[in-house]
């Protein structure tokens, strides 16, 4: 089994490319179409480690939703996509449990309305690009859309200064946005989330929504956290997608309003974040251990070469040259496995190193790591972790302790199977290359130099 997990793609994908990979299955609650990957996962990932199984809780550590979220927070720095996706799944479930009379207050957002909103967003963007105020500023310069053709034209690089308007100064004023931990304010408490949401609607030319629709307050908070400009969990969406979504949310709180945006986010999770997570999980050792293993592998290969040269030049019996194969075999297999991120010693016990953020979690259920739910809190604050205590503690650990960090057993059978396959590949590669190098030394005539 060969894993092809090197695929990476931009977070912003075209709508056409997404639609071509959809299964055409529409949620009964009017939500986004599910992008099922079929009976087999792409990029050589087994079905037992598929995206759907991880999200549904059908896998064991270290391939659970908890580890997936940790990977996106600490490694990829892109956790907002999964946080928003998990919130949306829960939102659809809660919406389906509402009485019909409450659901009727928020109409379904149709495909025709979505297309019209996208067209309006393109129109608004075109108007901004053809702003008369901007043309007035650049009039008479080299950036003028209709430059003067007389020789007395001013220097195109000498643009006149201008005084920013009040609106421009307000937009440049420092502010922080995002829902705080106590759920009362946005950011540091200076700007309320409702004001942030109102500004977001105003920027796209949408009207203020009705407040009697179900979950309107929650939608307002979601906008201030994920969609408003400068929000703490700002989703990587195109301007057209963001404007179209805000226009939809100004009219309805129905889950169908998120259909296009969720399709983009789910595509990114399935085809970028998920393969990268599986590839990262295959590595059973931390970076210092991997570097140490590579050093051992290179050392074994060099030792085999030096031994073969010395024995060949010494004129000793040819049989002694075959011992170089052991050094080649151990060195090449160790180096090959380390290149894949694996340590053969840890793999022999089916162990892995604890991640730095896991190292300082005590056995007590009230430990900071076990109680840390900010990353799974859809209405939480920023995903920044630089101020977490484990960062400074791990930085102060010496290299020797990092190489021999605490280990834990790998519980997921499918992951162990993948690692077994890589280990066998390492042994086969080492046997072939080691046999070739040993045969070369056997073919060289004795030197009788000493």
TrEMBL record:
Ribosomal protein listed as a keyword: no
Biased composition range(s): Pro residues: 153-163
InterPro entries hit by this protein: RGS_sf (IPR036305), RGS_subdomain_2 (IPR044926)
Start-end of Low complexity biased regions: 29-40
Positions of region (Disordered): 14-40, 139-189
Gene3D superfamilies to which the protein is assigned, alphabetical: Regulator of G-protein Signalling 4, domain 2 (1.10.167.10)
Protein's UniProt name: RGS domain-containing protein
Species, as recorded: Lithohypha guttulata
Source taxonomy: Eukaryota, Fungi, Dikarya, Ascomycota, Pezizomycotina
